[in-house]
Amino acid sequence: MGAEQKVVIITGASQGIGADLVKAYRDRNYRVVANSRAIKPSSDPDILAVPGDVADPKTAERLVTQAIERFGRVDSLVNNAGIFIAKPFTHYTDEDFAPIVSINLGGFFSLTRRVAAEMLKRGSGHIVQITTSLIDHANSNVPSVLASLTKGGLNAATRSLAIEYAKKGIRVNAVAPGVIKTPMHAPETHEFLANLHPVGRMGETKDIVDAVLFLESAPFVTGEILHVDGGQSAGH
Ligand SMILES: NC(=O)c1ccc[n+]([C@@H]2O[C@H](COP(=O)([O-])OP(=O)(O)OC[C@H]3O[C@@H](n4cnc5c(N)ncnc54)[C@H](OP(=O)(O)O)[C@@H]3O)[C@@H](O)[C@H]2O)c1
Known about the structure:
This protein has helices at residues 16-27, 57-71, 94-122, 145-164, 190-194, 205-216; strands at residues 7-11, 31-35, 47-49, 76-79, 125-130, 170-177, 225-228. By secondary structure, it is an alpha/beta fold. The chain has one domain (2-226): NAD(P)-binding Rossmann-like Domain (Rossmann fold, 3-Layer(aba) Sandwich). NADP nicotinamide-adenine-dinucleotide phosphate binds at residues 11-18, 35-39, 53-55, 80-84, 103, 130, 132, 177, 179-180, 182-184.
């Protein structure tokens, strides 16, 4: 136990994809630092819940400090916390723009640069962003420029950071989901959302978790944007 056990930081870990990522990493015997604004303490001593808004750089500071104090290392980071606001472009407001940028982009920046500094000391690590497949196949039925602006930025940063760290033992990847059945989507929208996918169904959280775990165990894969979207990015 102890020093040998790997440690992952997962943001947006209280529900949906993030909550299932926590379970999956625990099943692989990782110790988990789990964040969301309202996350509750866990009875599992190998899960450290650190509440806080990823848009606030102080949350990033606390996440990394507490991960090192409690578990001594950080092997992986999953930047999963994110928000999605779909609207026709001119309907977006400054009140939409500020949080989507500060959570989706600011959250990535504040936390990833602190975690990467720890990984560089050890000469190893893996960083994964959860983005969206919509970046690569804009759909007039789901206008969402601010999702493309922010998550598209994360895809670009993923490739850039993968190259910056390629010889430093740190891999950087992204998973680009289609529409996944999580509390983000009301049940009455599921049929419409299922039909947006060539395979005719929504994704399950397991589809995304399996993709993250594949990337975790794929040492020759870095700079990859792995589409897990029921065929959407291939066409319609
Ligand atoms: N579901 C989809 O169809 C879909 C498709 C493409 C991409 N994605 C991406 O996948 C990720 C997870 O989506 P999901 O469907 O699992 O979302 P979800 O069910 O809405 O859950 C979002 C999680 O993020 C946390 N969160 C939200 N804002 C936060 C903030 N400012 N700081 C820290 N934590 C925050 C929430 O907990 P608190 O409320 O406690 O903070 C919750 O744990 C997101 O980045 C999303 O954009 C989802």
